[in-house]
Amino acid sequence: MDVRAISIDDIGLSIRASNGLHRAGINTVGEMLTQTWESLMEIRSLGKKSVEEILQKIEKYKVYETEVDLPESEEDVDAELPDILGDYSTWVQTDEGKAFCRSWLEEKGIKIDSLELLSARAYNYLLLNGYTGMHQITFMNVEDLMQIPRMDPQCAEEIAGRCRLFLEEKKDDILTSLKAKHEAVEKSKDEMLRNMLHSEANHDKILQFVKANDEDTDSLALSVRARNALNRQGHFKISDFIFLTKKDLWDFPQMGTKTVDEILAFIDAYLAKNEDRIRAILSGDNSVLWDDSVVAGIINEAFNRIGFGGYSLRELRDKAELSDQISDEQLKRILGSMIAEGKLEYVDFRCYRVYQKFEEYLSSCSEIGDRTKQIISRKLAGETLESIATGFDLTRERIRQIISKDIKKVKKSYQTETGMEWFDEDYYRYFFETYSFNRKDAEEWLGVSKEIFNYLELSGFKRGSRDLEEAPDDYHNMDLGFRLRIKNYLNRDKLFLDGRWVNKNRADLEEYVVWKYCTENVSYNEFVRIYNDFLHEEEVPYDEDIYYTDAVKRTRENKLSGDRFLLWKQNKQIRYYDIDGHDFTELLDALNLDAYENIEYSTLKFMRNYPEIMEQYDIRDQYELHNLLRKIVPDGSYHDFHCERMPMIRFGIFDRDGALLDLLIDNAPISQADFAELVSHEYGYDSATVLGTYLQPLASYYHQGLYIIDQKAMLSEEQKKLLEHLDDDFYYMDEIRRLYVSIFPGADIEKINPYNLKTMGFSVLSRYVYRNHSSLDAYFRFLLTRNDITDITTYRRRFVYVVAFSGTLINMKNNLEIFEFEPNQIITFRKLAASGITKDNLLTFCDEVAEFVEDSTYLSIQSIKRDGFVSELFDLGFSDWFYANLLTVDDRFSHAKVFGNIILYKGDEHITIQSFEEQLIKEHGTIDVYDLMTEMEETYGCQITNRLDVIYKVKGTDVYYDEFLDRFYANTGVFNRELDATEGI
Fold first, then answer.
1. Which residues of 876-898 are buried (b: 16+ CB within 10 A; e: fewer)?
2. Using H for helix, E for strand and C for coil, what is the string for 688-735?
3. Which residues, 6 or more positions from 684, have their beta carbon under 8 angstroms from its beta carbon?
4. pLDDT band at 342 (very low <50, low <70, confident <90, very high)
5. What is the CATH number of domain 292-353?
6. Can you give the pTM of this predicted structure?
7. Which of 397, 292, 293, 307 is nearest to 352 (CA)?
8. How far does CA 910 lie from the centroid of its chain?
9. Please, how many CA atoms are within 13 Å of residue 783, restricted to the half-sphere of its CB?
10. Please, what is the Cα angle at 254 between 253 and 255, to 5 degrees?
11. Can you give the C-alpha Rg of the chain in angstroms?
12. How many DSSP H helices and E strands does the chain contain?
């Protein structure tokens, strides 16, 4: 068979690759084979991975091209087998040889582990960079191999050499396969000629030719008996019987030998007469087919298949399966003629079939008389049967019979005369038969006039019962213009606010008012006033189910406090905050909630400990953070997480009195004010609350302005034995107490106090101790740099209660001492310096990116690479995560986690998933949801698992999303302009 005619949908391409090719008008293997790297990269919806995938398929199918060509002569057959038997090593390095060998290796599934004696280091370089099959690397030279990240010259030489030996070892197998391939096409010309016309593989092309030159059987030089035999079986054209065999004909009833032979002789004669033209078509020359009349007939057939649908030029080519031999200029000329003749109309860049109105054709129909025409016309105009019957002195039933019978006559006459099945009024037939609607509203809103309605009823069509609410989604059966009219009708009782329809119910209107008027703190009572004033301004009639009343204020307050479009805080203040428009991965990573057990905090502690992350997420105080956590962290998750009354959160069971006593033991003697501040620092509690409430259980330790607890001494023998079990340089007090009790059952844990711990060589802080380092910061610096590469996941969990750890980590990143090259994986500058990298190199990289990117621009490392940015630092072979982290510590860039990747912005701006996505849409003006997802994934490196996330993230912005088109618009103005352009549909 001709592989060039195979659809690209049938060759195993990924959905993204095949869709990208279809959008560019590339639908067959033959069309695909004409493409190059450069032409594919110009297709907007194709990324690098998709292009590489397509190029692999091109290499594969170029090998098979010779299998489908029909040789012109025996010499051509002989010439197809290359003379490689004497010079295999030369042939295998030709383009043909490489392509064949790659295809053979891939088909056999030969993996890189077939390379004997290949070093583990070289093998790992290949495997870790996605090279698993021999077909991927066999013809890579040293220069090609050196492009693989972290590849060194020694391994490149080793791999290239092993591949050369491998090809030599497989010589016999490859040659055997190559010979078998060519033997399959080395048939004699005579045998090919005998099989060509009756080959199933050629069936579609021959049929294409016959249909382009078809004739009715009645016009053929056949006997009456033969024509009747064919017509009785439904064979009215040559294309209906051209492939019938003798067996097929003998199966016809009442067939004689002479008739069978006559029909077979006609078929042979027809094929022989047209052999040269058919052979030309089979060899790819379709110029014999496509004169204007043939093309016009094909266009008519294409429109007959879709009724009232429209075709763009590209869609018409695809659906009518027009040959590439038909130029766009010829096609436009033919369409122009058909439009001028009134057969087609051109609206919004699409062509539509023009159908005659029933009433117009009725007046000229010769199959019925004038009186009947008047009866049908009056009924179409809406007169009753009784009124019409009186005018013609007939009975009501007789009028009904005349209409029913003669409408059928008119329709049959129309179909015979024009070859078309539909009248213009039939445009509404599907809607009429499918949906339940109010007739008066349909006339006013949807254009279904009473004449159309009466025509459909008189034609015997039954009214549908499906809910009209489903109609806007029925895009398979109704066009855009009509669905938009239905949509406007359904939205007649909604408010169109800032480019979106808002239901007239309290919940939807609340969200809109908060988004529009509460971007800064507003009290709940003030919100109620703003809400009701807004309804008055929009002239919404008073309805107690929509307006705020005293009876519903308390209920709505409770409901509003839990909504995800605002933050609720102290003194019943609210502020618009699009919770679902943010990716909180980085926030939750910083808070590290999974590390807390049996503890209670005020969220003020997190506000103090993580000011940068709070500013990044625009969280302004502990009450907003508390409300946010309540909405994004499930109750009972982590280690039994609970949101208490603002601003407290708790993990598991917490003994506050016992915890404060432990803290006092570790820090006494201490004044009451200082201790209250210490408690506030440790737990985030308000100092006034600590003084007034939390310290009461400790009153017995308070004397003359100080809390005093006698620090019990520990025997030196106990200290010595305890020290034998303390191997680390850092401990929490609780850990030492538990260890002490396990060593000395029944021991007094009050001996674990600052006095004894200092005696043992520890520096003592509020809840933890350290030793062997000048400061806690020095200890953390030691941990983060003692190895060149460190996974800090364990450290983040271990030191979650120690603010100094996150501070040290941030400072070291900002000072370019450590770098995150993968999430939670850090590498030291010391390691980079060993490779010749200086801090000036790193700062220069940031400068180069800042110079490359315009101000107020979103970017990722992947996006600037696609735009042509290059840097010597890329030779380090790190992933994009490393380079993005370099930019996050540069004040010239803002950043956020967006769908699993770091997205940056050149400028000082609070950026979110929402702001990033909104900007991309505005750059396009209008864009399909899947096209936007493709751009975010392939240009910016995002990882999107659910298209609904993309849609939801821009809710509440100027962006307008049309769910029926599944398309974004920069604003309602852009949408309305497109809507206006469809009004004529």
1. bebebbbbbbbbebbebbbbbbb
2. HHHHHHHCHHHHHHEECCEECCCCCCCCHHHHHHHHHHCCCCEEEHHH
3. 601, 602, 603, 604, 605, 606, 607, 608, 622, 647
4. confident
5. 1.10.10
6. 0.46
7. 307
8. 25
9. 23
10. 95
11. 40
12. 55, 26
The string over 622-643, giving b where at least 16 C-beta atoms fall within 10 Å of a residue's C-beta and e elsewhere, is: bbbbbbbbbbebeeeebeebeb
426: closest CA among 477, 365, 476, 355? 355
What percentage of the chain reaches a pLDDT higher than 70?
Answer: 93
Q: Is the peptide bond preceding residue 669 cis, with omega within 30 degrees of 0?
A: yes
pLDDT digits (tens, 9 = 90+) for 552-603: 999 999 999 899 999 999 999 999 998 887 888 889 888 888 888 899 999 9
Q: What SS3 state is found at 647?
A: coil
Token output for 806: 């996150």
**Distance from C-alpha of 189 to C-alpha of 204, rounded to nearest angstrom:** 22
- Of 455, 443, 449, 440, the closest CA to residue 380 belongs to 455
Q: How confident is the model at residue 887 (pLDDT cuts 50, 70, 90)?
A: very high
What number is the average pLDDT over the span 838-851?
A: 94
In single-letter form, the type of residue at position 982 comes to T
DSSP state of 469: G
Question: Residue 866: how many CB atoms within 10 A of its CB?
Answer: 16
Say how many C-beta atoms besides its own lie within 10 A of residue 698's C-beta. Answer: 18
Contact 940, 903 (CB under 8 A): yes
| Tokens linked to 793 | 């996941």
Encoded tokens for 379? 């009924």
Spatial distance between the Cα atoms of 120 and 87, rounded to a whole number of angstroms: 34
Q: What is the DSSP string of 162-188?
A: HHHHHHHHTHHHHHHHHHHHHHHH---
The gap from C-alpha 564 to its chain's centroid, in whole angstroms, comes to 24
3-69 — its CATH code?
1.10.150.20
- Chain-centroid distance of CA 570 in Å reads 40
DSSP-assigned letter for residue 632:
H
- CA separation for the pair 141, 160 (Å, rounded): 6
CB-CB contact of 959 with 921 (8 Å): yes
Task: Kindly report the number of other CB atoms within 10 A of residue 591's CB atom.
Answer: 23
SS3 960: strand
Q: Give tens-digit pLDDT for 477-519.
A: 888 778 888 888 888 778 877 767 788 889 889 999 999 999 9
Q: What is the CATH number of domain 202-282?
A: 1.10.150.20
Q: Which two tokens stand for residue 52?
A: 């590489």
The pair of structure tokens assigned to 461 is: 């069509």
Closest CA to 767 of 814, 810, 735, 745: 735
